[in-house]
Write a structure and sequence with these properties.
With about 110 residues, this protein is α+β, with helices and mostly antiparallel strands. It has 2 helices and 5 strands. It starts with 11 loop residues before the first helix and ends in a 5-residue tail after the last strand.
Length: about 110
């Protein structure tokens, strides 16, 4: 039986292959109307994508757009692993963590 590698142990090629497999499973789950399973695969894909991003490219005390949540911005307080900790702007400033693949620079435009 093959043991699965952690995302942190995978090469870029292995990660991209894994993301492709996960997205295919997500597509099938969506077609079958399995909403919860689809959401799980989407989150797994985002986590794998986070390992393709250098955490040094995410700056503390900066504001980012949240991919998939139009018009919502996220202020990064600090990074821990592949997660950015901070809060959404315009809300109650509740601390939360987002995978760094969900953060898009506001400077890149729409």
């Amino acid at each position: 039986m093959e043991t699965e590698k952690k995302y942190s142990q995978m090469t870029e090629h292995e990660l991209r292959t894994e993301i492709g497999k996960i997205m295919e499973k997500a597509r099938k789950a969506e077609q079958l109307g399995m909403v919860n399973e689809y959401a799980v695969y989407q989150r797994k894909a985002v986590m794998a994508q986070s390992y393709l991003i250098d955490p040094k490219t995410i700056n503390k005390e900066e504001i980012y757009r949240i991919d998939g949540d139009e018009g919502v911005f996220f202020h990064v307080d600090y990074l821990k692993g592949r997660f950015a900790w901070g809060y959404r702007l315009g809300g109650e400033r509740a601390m939360e963590a987002l995978p760094i693949a969900m953060l898009k620079s506001v400077k890149e435009g729409k």
